[in-house]
Amino acid sequence: MREARTKILVSFNEQLDITTKTGPNDLVTNIDREVEAFYRDKIKKYYPASGIVGEESVNENTKPAVDGLLWIIDPIDGTMNFVKQRDHFASMIAVYQKDKGLRGYIYDIMQDKLYWGGADIGVYCNNEKMAPPRNKGLEGGLFGVGAPLLIKNYHNLQNVAMRSCGTRIYGCSGLQFIHVLNGQCVAYSSYLRPWDYAAGKVLAETLGLVVKTIDGKPIDMLSSSDVLVATKNAQKDITRIVQSIY
Amino acid sequence: MREARTKILVSFNEQLDITTKTGPNDLVTNIDREVEAFYRDKIKKYYPASGIVGEESVNENTKPAVDGLLWIIDPIDGTMNFVKQRDHFASMIAVYQKDKGLRGYIYDIMQDKLYWGGADIGVYCNNEKMAPPRNKGLEGGLFGVGAPLLIKNYHNLQNVAMRSCGTRIYGCSGLQFIHVLNGQCVAYSSYLRPWDYAAGKVLAETLGLVVKTIDGKPIDMLSSSDVLVATKNAQKDITRIVQSIY
Protein backbone atom coordinates (compact mmCIF):
# COMPACT_ATOMS: atom_id res chain seq x y z
CA MET A 1 0.00 0.00 0.00
CA ARG A 2 2.96 2.31 0.56
CA GLU A 3 4.03 1.59 -3.02
CA ALA A 4 0.50 2.46 -4.15
CA ARG A 5 0.72 5.72 -2.21
CA THR A 6 3.83 6.68 -4.14
CA LYS A 7 2.06 5.98 -7.45
CA ILE A 8 -0.83 8.19 -6.36
CA LEU A 9 1.40 11.07 -5.25
CA VAL A 10 3.40 10.93 -8.49
CA SER A 11 0.12 11.11 -10.45
CA PHE A 12 -0.45 14.66 -9.14
CA ASN A 13 2.22 15.77 -11.62
CA GLU A 14 0.42 14.16 -14.56
CA GLN A 15 -2.84 14.74 -16.39
CA LEU A 16 -5.58 12.48 -14.97
CA ASP A 17 -7.75 10.49 -17.36
CA ILE A 18 -11.21 10.87 -15.81
CA THR A 19 -14.37 9.08 -16.94
CA THR A 20 -17.81 8.67 -15.40
CA LYS A 21 -19.51 5.42 -14.43
CA THR A 22 -23.16 5.37 -13.30
CA GLY A 23 -23.61 9.17 -13.39
CA PRO A 24 -21.78 12.51 -13.62
CA ASN A 25 -20.64 12.32 -9.99
CA ASP A 26 -19.50 8.67 -10.11
CA LEU A 27 -15.94 9.06 -11.34
CA VAL A 28 -13.10 6.71 -12.14
CA THR A 29 -9.59 7.72 -13.14
CA ASN A 30 -6.68 5.89 -14.70
CA ILE A 31 -5.05 5.96 -11.24
CA ASP A 32 -7.97 4.08 -9.65
CA ARG A 33 -7.55 1.43 -12.34
CA GLU A 34 -3.75 1.31 -12.11
CA VAL A 35 -3.73 0.99 -8.32
CA GLU A 36 -6.38 -1.74 -8.42
CA ALA A 37 -4.39 -3.66 -11.05
CA PHE A 38 -1.29 -3.25 -8.89
CA TYR A 39 -3.08 -4.68 -5.84
CA ARG A 40 -4.53 -7.54 -7.91
CA ASP A 41 -1.13 -8.48 -9.29
CA LYS A 42 0.41 -8.55 -5.83
CA ILE A 43 -2.44 -10.61 -4.40
CA LYS A 44 -2.36 -13.10 -7.29
CA LYS A 45 1.40 -13.45 -6.86
CA TYR A 46 1.35 -14.20 -3.12
CA TYR A 47 -2.17 -15.63 -2.74
CA PRO A 48 -2.92 -17.21 -6.14
CA ALA A 49 -5.85 -19.24 -4.78
CA SER A 50 -7.71 -16.21 -3.35
CA GLY A 51 -10.81 -14.55 -4.72
CA ILE A 52 -10.68 -10.81 -5.40
CA VAL A 53 -13.47 -8.22 -5.53
CA GLY A 54 -12.51 -4.73 -6.61
CA GLU A 55 -14.37 -1.53 -7.35
CA GLU A 56 -12.91 -0.86 -10.76
CA SER A 57 -12.52 -4.20 -12.55
CA VAL A 58 -14.50 -7.10 -13.87
CA ASN A 59 -14.53 -9.41 -10.91
CA GLU A 60 -13.46 -12.51 -12.76
CA ASN A 61 -11.82 -14.21 -9.80
CA THR A 62 -14.50 -13.70 -7.14
CA LYS A 63 -15.37 -17.28 -6.31
CA PRO A 64 -14.84 -20.01 -5.47
CA ALA A 65 -11.61 -19.17 -3.69
CA VAL A 66 -9.51 -22.30 -3.30
CA ASP A 67 -7.83 -20.99 -0.15
CA GLY A 68 -11.13 -19.70 1.22
CA LEU A 69 -9.94 -16.07 1.20
CA LEU A 70 -11.67 -13.14 -0.44
CA TRP A 71 -9.81 -9.84 -0.93
CA ILE A 72 -11.99 -6.73 -1.22
CA ILE A 73 -10.25 -3.72 -2.76
CA ASP A 74 -11.06 -0.03 -3.13
CA PRO A 75 -7.98 1.49 -4.78
CA ILE A 76 -9.13 5.09 -4.24
CA ASP A 77 -12.10 5.65 -1.98
CA GLY A 78 -13.37 9.21 -2.46
CA THR A 79 -12.40 9.58 -6.12
CA MET A 80 -14.30 12.89 -6.34
CA ASN A 81 -12.10 14.30 -3.55
CA PHE A 82 -9.02 12.83 -5.24
CA VAL A 83 -9.94 14.68 -8.45
CA LYS A 84 -11.30 17.95 -7.02
CA GLN A 85 -9.34 18.32 -3.78
CA ARG A 86 -6.18 16.26 -4.15
CA ASP A 87 -6.85 15.38 -0.54
CA HIS A 88 -9.36 13.57 1.68
CA PHE A 89 -9.33 10.15 0.01
CA ALA A 90 -8.25 6.67 1.14
CA SER A 91 -7.02 3.39 -0.28
CA MET A 92 -8.59 0.27 1.25
CA ILE A 93 -8.07 -3.47 1.35
CA ALA A 94 -9.92 -6.10 3.37
CA VAL A 95 -9.37 -9.85 3.67
CA TYR A 96 -12.38 -12.03 4.47
CA GLN A 97 -12.86 -15.74 5.05
CA LYS A 98 -16.50 -16.35 4.19
CA ASP A 99 -18.35 -13.69 6.25
CA LYS A 100 -15.54 -13.29 8.74
CA GLY A 101 -13.25 -10.30 8.31
CA LEU A 102 -9.62 -11.23 9.02
CA ARG A 103 -7.82 -8.00 8.17
CA GLY A 104 -8.76 -4.46 7.29
CA TYR A 105 -6.52 -1.68 5.93
CA ILE A 106 -7.61 1.96 5.47
CA TYR A 107 -4.83 4.22 4.24
CA ASP A 108 -5.29 7.99 4.59
CA ILE A 109 -2.92 8.76 1.73
CA MET A 110 -2.30 12.48 2.27
CA GLN A 111 -1.82 12.18 6.04
CA ASP A 112 0.29 9.04 5.49
CA LYS A 113 -1.64 7.19 8.17
CA LEU A 114 -2.43 3.51 7.68
CA TYR A 115 -5.16 2.09 9.94
CA TRP A 116 -4.92 -1.68 9.96
CA GLY A 117 -5.58 -4.77 12.03
CA GLY A 118 -7.98 -7.57 12.90
CA ALA A 119 -9.66 -9.34 15.82
CA ASP A 120 -6.57 -11.40 16.72
CA ILE A 121 -4.07 -8.52 16.81
CA GLY A 122 -6.01 -5.31 17.51
CA VAL A 123 -6.04 -2.11 15.47
CA TYR A 124 -3.03 0.06 14.72
CA CYS A 125 -2.50 3.52 13.25
CA ASN A 126 0.88 3.03 11.57
CA ASN A 127 2.84 1.39 14.41
CA GLU A 128 0.74 2.66 17.29
CA LYS A 129 -1.94 0.46 18.85
CA MET A 130 -5.34 2.17 19.06
CA ALA A 131 -7.52 2.09 22.16
CA PRO A 132 -11.28 1.60 21.70
CA PRO A 133 -13.11 4.94 21.53
CA ARG A 134 -15.32 5.95 24.46
CA ASN A 135 -18.85 4.56 24.28
CA LYS A 136 -20.62 7.91 23.92
CA GLY A 137 -24.26 8.28 22.91
CA LEU A 138 -25.50 10.26 19.92
CA GLU A 139 -25.86 13.47 21.92
CA GLY A 140 -22.24 13.22 23.02
CA GLY A 141 -20.60 13.32 19.60
CA LEU A 142 -20.51 14.22 15.94
CA PHE A 143 -22.49 12.34 13.28
CA GLY A 144 -20.97 11.54 9.89
CA VAL A 145 -23.41 10.90 7.07
CA GLY A 146 -23.68 10.54 3.31
CA ALA A 147 -25.20 13.64 1.71
CA PRO A 148 -28.01 11.91 -0.25
CA LEU A 149 -29.32 10.11 2.86
CA LEU A 150 -29.36 13.39 4.78
CA ILE A 151 -30.91 15.51 2.02
CA LYS A 152 -33.67 12.97 1.32
CA ASN A 153 -34.19 12.34 5.06
CA TYR A 154 -34.05 8.59 4.48
CA HIS A 155 -34.54 6.64 7.73
CA ASN A 156 -35.31 9.88 9.61
CA LEU A 157 -31.61 10.76 9.48
CA GLN A 158 -32.24 14.51 9.63
CA ASN A 159 -33.60 13.91 13.11
CA VAL A 160 -30.54 11.85 13.96
CA ALA A 161 -28.32 14.68 12.73
CA MET A 162 -30.17 17.34 14.72
CA ARG A 163 -29.86 15.33 17.96
CA SER A 164 -26.09 14.88 17.55
CA CYS A 165 -23.44 17.49 18.36
CA GLY A 166 -23.16 18.24 14.64
CA THR A 167 -23.13 16.78 11.15
CA ARG A 168 -19.99 16.02 9.16
CA ILE A 169 -19.78 15.10 5.45
CA TYR A 170 -16.31 14.41 4.01
CA GLY A 171 -17.21 12.48 0.87
CA CYS A 172 -14.95 9.50 1.65
CA SER A 173 -16.26 6.51 3.57
CA GLY A 174 -12.75 5.40 4.55
CA LEU A 175 -12.04 8.72 6.29
CA GLN A 176 -15.47 8.74 7.88
CA PHE A 177 -14.82 5.22 9.26
CA ILE A 178 -11.48 6.47 10.63
CA HIS A 179 -13.30 9.28 12.44
CA VAL A 180 -15.48 6.73 14.24
CA LEU A 181 -12.50 4.46 14.99
CA ASN A 182 -10.61 7.26 16.72
CA GLY A 183 -13.65 8.79 18.45
CA GLN A 184 -13.80 11.99 16.36
CA CYS A 185 -17.38 11.02 15.41
CA VAL A 186 -19.72 8.70 17.34
CA ALA A 187 -21.36 7.35 14.20
CA TYR A 188 -21.35 7.32 10.39
CA SER A 189 -24.13 6.22 8.07
CA SER A 190 -24.22 6.08 4.28
CA TYR A 191 -25.32 3.92 1.37
CA LEU A 192 -22.21 1.83 0.86
CA ARG A 193 -20.98 -0.85 -1.48
CA PRO A 194 -18.91 -3.77 -0.10
CA TRP A 195 -15.53 -2.18 -0.94
CA ASP A 196 -16.64 1.01 0.88
CA TYR A 197 -17.14 -0.73 4.23
CA ALA A 198 -15.31 -4.11 4.15
CA ALA A 199 -12.06 -2.84 5.71
CA GLY A 200 -13.79 -0.43 8.08
CA LYS A 201 -16.07 -3.19 9.39
CA VAL A 202 -13.10 -5.35 10.43
CA LEU A 203 -11.39 -2.48 12.23
CA ALA A 204 -14.55 -1.08 13.84
CA GLU A 205 -15.71 -4.44 15.21
CA THR A 206 -12.24 -5.13 16.56
CA LEU A 207 -12.50 -1.87 18.55
CA GLY A 208 -15.92 -2.81 19.98
CA LEU A 209 -17.97 -0.64 17.63
CA VAL A 210 -21.19 -1.83 15.99
CA VAL A 211 -21.47 -2.19 12.19
CA LYS A 212 -25.00 -3.02 11.03
CA THR A 213 -27.59 -1.82 8.56
CA ILE A 214 -29.19 1.46 9.60
CA ASP A 215 -32.24 -0.47 10.83
CA GLY A 216 -30.14 -2.72 13.04
CA LYS A 217 -29.79 -5.86 10.91
CA PRO A 218 -26.57 -7.80 10.24
CA ILE A 219 -24.84 -6.77 7.04
CA ASP A 220 -25.00 -9.19 4.15
CA MET A 221 -21.42 -9.00 2.88
CA LEU A 222 -21.07 -8.51 -0.87
CA SER A 223 -24.29 -6.52 -1.03
CA SER A 224 -24.83 -2.76 -0.88
CA SER A 225 -26.67 -1.37 2.14
CA ASP A 226 -27.40 1.72 4.19
CA VAL A 227 -24.64 0.94 6.68
CA LEU A 228 -24.25 2.38 10.19
CA VAL A 229 -21.00 2.22 12.15
CA ALA A 230 -21.32 3.59 15.67
CA THR A 231 -20.46 3.23 19.31
CA LYS A 232 -22.78 0.78 21.07
CA ASN A 233 -24.65 3.62 22.77
CA ALA A 234 -24.94 5.80 19.67
CA GLN A 235 -26.16 2.79 17.68
CA LYS A 236 -28.97 2.26 20.21
CA ASP A 237 -29.90 5.96 20.12
CA ILE A 238 -29.90 6.06 16.33
CA THR A 239 -31.86 2.82 15.90
CA ARG A 240 -34.54 4.22 18.22
CA ILE A 241 -34.88 7.40 16.12
CA VAL A 242 -34.80 5.47 12.84
CA GLN A 243 -37.44 2.98 14.00
CA SER A 244 -39.73 5.74 15.32
CA ILE A 245 -40.82 6.46 11.73
CA TYR A 246 -42.05 2.95 10.96
CA MET B 1 -0.86 33.65 15.74
CA ARG B 2 2.02 31.18 15.85
CA GLU B 3 2.29 31.86 19.60
CA ALA B 4 -1.46 31.21 19.87
CA ARG B 5 -0.99 27.92 18.00
CA THR B 6 1.54 26.79 20.59
CA LYS B 7 -0.89 27.61 23.42
CA ILE B 8 -3.58 25.58 21.67
CA LEU B 9 -1.34 22.55 21.08
CA VAL B 10 -0.13 22.60 24.69
CA SER B 11 -3.78 22.62 25.85
CA PHE B 12 -4.21 19.11 24.42
CA ASN B 13 -2.25 17.85 27.43
CA GLU B 14 -4.58 19.59 29.90
CA GLN B 15 -8.20 19.23 30.94
CA LEU B 16 -10.41 21.63 28.95
CA ASP B 17 -12.94 23.75 30.80
CA ILE B 18 -15.98 23.56 28.49
CA THR B 19 -19.20 25.54 28.89
CA THR B 20 -22.17 26.15 26.60
CA LYS B 21 -23.43 29.50 25.31
CA THR B 22 -26.72 29.74 23.38
CA GLY B 23 -27.40 25.98 23.32
CA PRO B 24 -25.86 22.54 23.93
CA ASN B 25 -23.91 22.65 20.65
CA ASP B 26 -22.60 26.22 21.07
CA LEU B 27 -19.44 25.61 23.08
CA VAL B 28 -16.74 27.80 24.51
CA THR B 29 -13.61 26.61 26.29
CA ASN B 30 -11.03 28.26 28.48
CA ILE B 31 -8.67 28.07 25.49
CA ASP B 32 -11.03 30.12 23.27
CA ARG B 33 -11.07 32.76 26.02
CA GLU B 34 -7.33 32.64 26.64
CA VAL B 35 -6.42 32.95 22.97
CA GLU B 36 -8.86 35.83 22.49
CA ALA B 37 -7.41 37.63 25.52
CA PHE B 38 -3.93 37.03 24.12
CA TYR B 39 -4.90 38.55 20.74
CA ARG B 40 -6.61 41.51 22.45
CA ASP B 41 -3.57 42.25 24.58
CA LYS B 42 -1.27 42.20 21.55
CA ILE B 43 -3.61 44.43 19.52
CA LYS B 44 -4.03 46.91 22.39
CA LYS B 45 -0.28 47.05 22.82
CA TYR B 46 0.59 47.77 19.18
CA TYR B 47 -2.67 49.42 18.02
CA PRO B 48 -4.08 51.04 21.18
CA ALA B 49 -6.51 53.24 19.19
CA SER B 50 -8.15 50.30 17.34
CA GLY B 51 -11.59 48.84 17.96
CA ILE B 52 -11.84 45.11 18.63
CA VAL B 53 -14.72 42.70 18.10
CA GLY B 54 -14.24 39.16 19.34
CA GLU B 55 -16.40 36.09 19.62
CA GLU B 56 -15.80 35.34 23.27
CA SER B 57 -15.65 38.67 25.13
CA VAL B 58 -17.71 41.68 25.98
CA ASN B 59 -16.91 43.99 23.11
CA GLU B 60 -16.11 47.06 25.18
CA ASN B 61 -13.72 48.60 22.68
CA THR B 62 -15.74 48.23 19.47
CA LYS B 63 -16.20 51.86 18.49
CA PRO B 64 -15.34 54.56 17.86
CA ALA B 65 -11.85 53.49 16.81
CA VAL B 66 -9.53 56.50 16.95
CA ASP B 67 -7.26 55.09 14.25
CA GLY B 68 -10.24 53.95 12.16
CA LEU B 69 -9.29 50.29 12.41
CA LEU B 70 -11.53 47.46 13.60
CA TRP B 71 -10.03 44.07 14.46
CA ILE B 72 -12.39 41.10 14.24
CA ILE B 73 -11.23 37.99 16.10
CA ASP B 74 -12.31 34.37 16.25
CA PRO B 75 -9.78 32.69 18.55
CA ILE B 76 -10.98 29.16 17.75
CA ASP B 77 -13.40 28.75 14.86
CA GLY B 78 -14.92 25.28 15.02
CA THR B 79 -14.84 24.87 18.79
CA MET B 80 -16.93 21.69 18.54
CA ASN B 81 -14.24 20.12 16.33
CA PHE B 82 -11.57 21.42 18.69
CA VAL B 83 -13.28 19.65 21.60
CA LYS B 84 -14.47 16.47 19.87
CA GLN B 85 -11.85 15.95 17.16
CA ARG B 86 -8.74 17.83 18.24
CA ASP B 87 -8.51 18.71 14.57
CA HIS B 88 -10.34 20.65 11.86
CA PHE B 89 -10.50 24.08 13.52
CA ALA B 90 -8.99 27.48 12.70
CA SER B 91 -7.92 30.69 14.38
CA MET B 92 -8.92 33.88 12.55
CA ILE B 93 -8.18 37.60 12.61
CA ALA B 94 -9.36 40.32 10.24
CA VAL B 95 -8.53 44.03 10.09
CA TYR B 96 -11.16 46.36 8.65
CA GLN B 97 -11.28 50.10 8.00
CA LYS B 98 -14.98 50.92 8.03
CA ASP B 99 -16.46 48.38 5.58
CA LYS B 100 -13.18 47.79 3.79
CA GLY B 101 -11.22 44.67 4.71
CA LEU B 102 -7.49 45.38 4.84
CA ARG B 103 -6.12 42.06 6.07
CA GLY B 104 -7.44 38.56 6.67
CA TYR B 105 -5.73 35.68 8.49
CA ILE B 106 -7.10 32.12 8.65
CA TYR B 107 -4.81 29.72 10.48
CA ASP B 108 -5.39 25.97 10.00
CA ILE B 109 -3.79 25.08 13.32
CA MET B 110 -3.29 21.32 12.91
CA GLN B 111 -1.94 21.56 9.35
CA ASP B 112 0.17 24.58 10.41
CA LYS B 113 -0.99 26.53 7.36
CA LEU B 114 -1.65 30.26 7.67
CA TYR B 115 -3.70 31.80 4.86
CA TRP B 116 -3.25 35.57 4.92
CA GLY B 117 -3.23 38.67 2.78
CA GLY B 118 -5.21 41.60 1.41
CA ALA B 119 -6.06 43.45 -1.80
CA ASP B 120 -2.74 45.31 -1.98
CA ILE B 121 -0.46 42.30 -1.49
CA GLY B 122 -2.39 39.20 -2.64
CA VAL B 123 -3.05 36.01 -0.68
CA TYR B 124 -0.42 33.67 0.73
CA CYS B 125 -0.42 30.20 2.25
CA ASN B 126 2.48 30.51 4.66
CA ASN B 127 5.13 32.02 2.35
CA GLU B 128 3.68 30.84 -0.94
CA LYS B 129 1.56 33.18 -3.04
CA MET B 130 -1.78 31.68 -4.05
CA ALA B 131 -3.18 31.88 -7.57
CA PRO B 132 -6.91 32.59 -7.97
CA PRO B 133 -8.94 29.37 -8.26
CA ARG B 134 -10.47 28.47 -11.62
CA ASN B 135 -13.86 30.07 -12.25
CA LYS B 136 -15.86 26.82 -12.32
CA GLY B 137 -19.65 26.68 -12.19
CA LEU B 138 -21.66 24.79 -9.56
CA GLU B 139 -21.73 21.59 -11.60
CA GLY B 140 -17.94 21.63 -11.84
CA GLY B 141 -17.14 21.44 -8.15
CA LEU B 142 -17.95 20.57 -4.57
CA PHE B 143 -20.37 22.58 -2.42
CA GLY B 144 -19.62 23.31 1.24
CA VAL B 145 -22.60 24.11 3.43
CA GLY B 146 -23.72 24.52 7.03
CA ALA B 147 -25.73 21.52 8.22
CA PRO B 148 -28.80 23.42 9.48
CA LEU B 149 -29.26 25.28 6.17
CA LEU B 150 -29.05 21.98 4.27
CA ILE B 151 -31.32 19.99 6.59
CA LYS B 152 -34.02 22.70 6.66
CA ASN B 153 -33.61 23.33 2.91
CA TYR B 154 -33.40 27.07 3.52
CA HIS B 155 -33.02 29.02 0.26
CA ASN B 156 -33.52 25.81 -1.78
CA LEU B 157 -30.00 24.72 -0.79
CA GLN B 158 -30.81 21.01 -1.12
CA ASN B 159 -31.30 21.65 -4.80
CA VAL B 160 -28.01 23.53 -4.92
CA ALA B 161 -26.29 20.59 -3.23
CA MET B 162 -27.80 18.04 -5.61
CA ARG B 163 -26.61 19.99 -8.67
CA SER B 164 -23.03 20.23 -7.42
CA CYS B 165 -20.43 17.46 -7.62
CA GLY B 166 -21.06 16.73 -3.95
CA THR B 167 -21.74 18.20 -0.52
CA ARG B 168 -19.10 18.79 2.14
CA ILE B 169 -19.69 19.72 5.79
CA TYR B 170 -16.61 20.21 7.99
CA GLY B 171 -18.08 22.21 10.87
CA CYS B 172 -15.55 25.04 10.64
CA SER B 173 -16.21 28.10 8.49
CA GLY B 174 -12.51 29.00 8.36
CA LEU B 175 -11.61 25.64 6.81
CA GLN B 176 -14.59 25.81 4.46
CA PHE B 177 -13.43 29.27 3.29
CA ILE B 178 -9.94 27.81 2.72
CA HIS B 179 -11.46 25.11 0.51
CA VAL B 180 -13.01 27.77 -1.72
CA LEU B 181 -9.82 29.86 -1.75
CA ASN B 182 -7.75 26.94 -3.02
CA GLY B 183 -10.40 25.57 -5.40
CA GLN B 184 -11.20 22.41 -3.42
CA CYS B 185 -14.84 23.58 -3.32
CA VAL B 186 -16.54 26.03 -5.71
CA ALA B 187 -18.78 27.50 -3.02
CA TYR B 188 -19.63 27.54 0.68
CA SER B 189 -22.80 28.80 2.32
CA SER B 190 -23.76 28.98 5.98
CA TYR B 191 -25.36 31.22 8.58
CA LEU B 192 -22.34 33.13 9.80
CA ARG B 193 -21.54 35.76 12.38
CA PRO B 194 -19.04 38.54 11.54
CA TRP B 195 -16.03 36.76 13.12
CA ASP B 196 -16.87 33.63 11.08
CA TYR B 197 -16.49 35.37 7.71
CA ALA B 198 -14.53 38.63 8.22
CA ALA B 199 -11.09 37.17 7.45
CA GLY B 200 -12.37 34.85 4.72
CA LYS B 201 -14.13 37.73 2.95
CA VAL B 202 -10.89 39.71 2.62
CA LEU B 203 -8.96 36.73 1.24
CA ALA B 204 -11.76 35.52 -1.05
CA GLU B 205 -12.38 38.92 -2.63
CA THR B 206 -8.65 39.39 -3.16
CA LEU B 207 -8.64 36.15 -5.18
CA GLY B 208 -11.59 37.27 -7.33
CA LEU B 209 -14.24 35.25 -5.52
CA VAL B 210 -17.67 36.64 -4.66
CA VAL B 211 -18.79 37.03 -1.03
CA LYS B 212 -22.44 38.09 -0.68
CA THR B 213 -25.59 37.06 1.11
CA ILE B 214 -27.11 33.86 -0.28
CA ASP B 215 -29.69 35.96 -2.17
CA GLY B 216 -27.00 38.07 -3.82
CA LYS B 217 -26.96 41.19 -1.64
CA PRO B 218 -23.88 42.94 -0.24
CA ILE B 219 -22.99 41.83 3.26
CA ASP B 220 -23.69 44.28 6.05
CA MET B 221 -20.51 43.88 8.10
CA LEU B 222 -21.06 43.40 11.84
CA SER B 223 -24.33 41.60 11.24
CA SER B 224 -25.03 37.88 10.94
CA SER B 225 -26.20 36.58 7.57
CA ASP B 226 -26.61 33.52 5.39
CA VAL B 227 -23.32 34.12 3.59
CA LEU B 228 -22.21 32.65 0.26
CA VAL B 229 -18.60 32.59 -0.91
CA ALA B 230 -18.19 31.23 -4.41
CA THR B 231 -16.49 31.53 -7.75
CA LYS B 232 -18.21 34.09 -9.98
CA ASN B 233 -19.79 31.34 -12.09
CA ALA B 234 -20.92 29.21 -9.15
CA GLN B 235 -22.38 32.30 -7.47
CA LYS B 236 -24.51 32.98 -10.58
CA ASP B 237 -25.63 29.34 -10.73
CA ILE B 238 -26.52 29.26 -7.04
CA THR B 239 -28.33 32.61 -7.04
CA ARG B 240 -30.48 31.36 -9.92
CA ILE B 241 -31.47 28.22 -7.98
CA VAL B 242 -32.06 30.16 -4.75
CA GLN B 243 -34.20 32.79 -6.46
CA SER B 244 -36.28 30.17 -8.29
CA ILE B 245 -38.20 29.52 -5.06
CA TYR B 246 -39.38 33.11 -4.55
TrEMBL record, chains A, B:
InterPro entries: Inositol_monoP_metal-BS (IPR020583), Inositol_monophosphatase-like (IPR000760)
BP GO annotations: inositol metabolic process; signal transduction
Cofactor section: Mg(2+)
Keyword Lipid biosynthesis: no
CDD domains, sorted: IMPase_like
Residues reported to bind Mg(2+): E55, D74, I76, D77, D196
UniProt superkingdom: Bacteria
Pfam families tied to this protein: Inositol_P (PF00459)
GO molecular-function terms, A-Z: inositol monophosphate 1-phosphatase activity; metal ion binding
Keywords: Hydrolase, Magnesium, Metal-binding
Keyword Thylakoid carried by entry: no
PROSITE patterns from the UniProt entry: IMP_1
Protein's name according to its UniProt entry: Myo-inositol-1(Or 4)-monophosphatase
Record organism: Liquorilactobacillus capillatus DSM 19910
